[in-house]
Design brief:
The protein is mostly helical. Helices cover 70% and strands 3% of the residues.
Length: 237
């Protein structure tokens, strides 16, 4: 870890970035114990309070964990894709809601990514993924299901499709693309007629996944994108 800091910039942020870079580069490995607060304060020539704030920043990013007791301290955390998905979804949701991204643009990105995932899902999907997709289809057809519940079920359906690729990197990346759109989807009122069309396409896609037909999955997703875009334009108009 480098010890030179810029006095005019937030010191705790610089220390956190320094340690983060050491973790990313492999200079600090998983489960390795970091130097104590006193040692870090001496190394960076700052107060222990500043070091403590830097460690809080790293803990908030799940990069380190702290343990109490005689053998305690701060340790480099092992980050899983599953544990990091919540942060990815939050960041993506904020980006879509706060940066004037149109529904059309977000929808285009989501389905482009899903179509790219389709061949792997067709090849690797497990019965459990198909079971989830069919269960969500049944849920979507329930009478009296709220728009919010329908959108949540839509997210679960597409997450199962993506997870069927059995690639944690894809699942992590697509979690943001799929789930970040839910607040935008909640803005659309799904009439019974619109739901029927969406459910029918979900059935087509699920059948294609079960048949391991990547081309049919892709065409089903294209048709679903067109239906969603048409519905959105009608509602926003």
């Amino acid at each position: 870890m480098k010890s030179n800091l810029v006095p005019t910039v937030d010191l705790s942020a610089q220390i956190a970035a320094n340690i983060r870079d050491a973790i990313v580069s492999g200079a600090l490995i998983v489960d390795e114990r970091l130097p104590s607060e006193a040692e870090l304060a001496q190394k960076f020539e700052v107060s222990r309070a500043t070091v403590r704030e830097a460690l809080k920043r790293l803990a908030a990013q799940s990069l380190i964990r702290t343990q109490r007791g005689a053998t305690g301290g701060a340790f480099v955390n092992r980050i899983s894709f599953e544990a990091a998905q919540a942060q990815q979804i939050t960041t993506s949701t904020l980006l879509l809601s706060m940066n004037d991204v149109s529904f059309e643009t977000a929808c285009e990105a989501r389905y482009a990514l899903e179509r790219a995932c389709a061949p792997l899902s067709a090849q690797r999907r497990k019965p459990s993924h198909i079971d989830v997709m069919r269960a969500e289809i049944a849920r979507q057809g329930q009478q009296g299901l709220s728009d919010e519940a329908f959108c949540a079920s839509d997210v679960a359906f597409h997450r199962a499709l993506v997870d069927g690729a059995c690639n944690p990197v894809l699942s992590y990346q697509l979690a943001g693309a799929v789930e970040a759109m839910q607040p935008l989807m909640n803005m659309i009122t799904f009439s019974a007629r619109s739901r029927d069309a969406i459910i029918a396409l979900h059935v087509t896609i699920t059948d294609a996944v079960q048949a391991q037909d990547a081309a049919l999955i892709g065409s089903g997703l294209t048709a679903l994108e067109a239906e969603t875009q048409t519905l959105a334009r009608r509602v926003f108009a």
